[in-house]
Amino acid sequence: MKRKRTFPILFSIIIFAAMIYGAVVISRSISLRSQKVSEISENTREIETLKKDIEELQGEIDNSETPEFIEEVARKEFGMVKPREVIYVDKDKSSEKDNLLESN
């Protein structure tokens, strides 16, 4: 008679252990899915940012071939001027720049 009772108790323990194992596996998979969804979201935001950067850089590339841009670079970086153009230099501003350069 004891033998009949042992089987249902053992069966109940095995079922309970299987349920706990299943709950742990499901919990881990939900956690992993949540992590992957957040990674996808982060990567999507990064892609959008990079696309905007690419558009800005492409605009700069397109703009760099215009005569206005070339003139601006020539004036700012190389100090070039147009023929017969008069340049006025403010001595106060130039002395301030000299002071800043000397202090650095």
UniProtKB/TrEMBL annotation:
Which InterPro entries does UniProt cross-reference here? Answer: FtsL/DivIC
Q: Which GO terms describe its biological process?
A: cell division
Keyword Cell division present in the record's keywords: the answer is yes
Q: Could you confirm whether the keyword Cell cycle appears in this record? A: yes
Coiled-coil boundaries: 40-67
Task: Enumerate the UniProt keywords alphabetically.
Answer: Cell cycle, Cell division, Coiled coil
Q: What is this protein called?
A: Cell division protein FtsL
